[in-house]
Amino acid sequence: MANGHLYVTRDLGPEPMQILRESGHEVVVHPDRDLPPTREELLEHVNGAVGIITLLTEAMDAELFDRAGPQLKVVAAVSVGTDNIDVHAAESRGITVTNTPDVLTDATADLAIGLLLALNRRIVEADAFLRRSEPWSWGPRLFLGRDLAGETLGIVGYGRIGEALATRARAFGMRVIAAASGSGSRGGVERMPLDELLATADVISLHAPLNGETRHLIGARQIASMKPGAVIINTARGPLIDEDALVDALRNRRIRGAGLDVFEHEPAIHPGLLELDNVVLTPHIGSAGEQTRTRMALLAIKNALAVLDHSGPLTPVSTLGSTGSRRDAVTVPSAGVGKQGES
Ligand code: GLV
Description:
Number of strands: 15
Helix content: 25-40%
Strand order of the largest sheet: 8-9-7-6-10-11-12-13
Order of helices and strands: EHEHEHEHEHHEHEEEHEHEHEHEHEE
Bound molecules: glyoxylic acid
Structural class: alpha/beta
Largest sheet: 8 strands, mixed
Shape: elongated
CATH class of the largest domain: Alpha Beta
Radius of gyration: 21 Å
């Protein structure tokens, strides 16, 4: 048994917590189920830890690793994205970083299609309309939206989640294109450079990881190149979009709408977004299926215990990318990015 505790930044639910408690390791859990530890609490509680199981709300950086001490062996993220973790700083201290790919792929693709349906068929607006109890009668233009069938979906970041979304979109009768390396069609999905995709797609859905090269991947210039009726869906990471530019474009109806599960300055929401009726907003719930969340917690725990018990982690992440991910699949050509992993 490792000499030191395993710090868990949130209660991960009954089954995962039971496994942790029976692991033989000393386990310290942040007591608040819903709120993350503050930075001060984090720095205090990681002191002496051999492992940290963390959510995406906590910055895991050099200062924190040093505060933990040289016995820290593993940082296991309960997320697929690891942009909150300084993987380079971890590596240079011999700390293994892991994530939870695959287990949340379907849940996230489901939410992306849900946001698209809500936006295109104006479901949230229509619900709010009925709740206002205004008199209404059926009419041919009442909440007229856009069909999915026949629309072109452009997937930016064609990894596991992008592929799962493509499967769903094709079932709805959509044509699917992707900003991915190579040319021609793969699995019925036509690959093309990002600029061409932006000018072609009716719906643009983001599934790229956040890194130095993908921050503001979609800014004023990219929005200007979209079709006037385009909608954008983001279930990946907020900073992929320049939110000021997006709000401007939505306000003046330069594009038709946006479905956003993630935000540039999360948990803050751009006040402009809250005033618009052509957006559907959800609070970063892409993986929030009960079964998915349990699978994520179990995978993170397995990863942490595997490192502490000296067997290999299942899904490690390195500065070269996540070994569980398909590296070529998330390249976004022409934006000059070709990073691994996905969000
Ligand atoms: C969620 O955003 C994740 O990265 O798992």
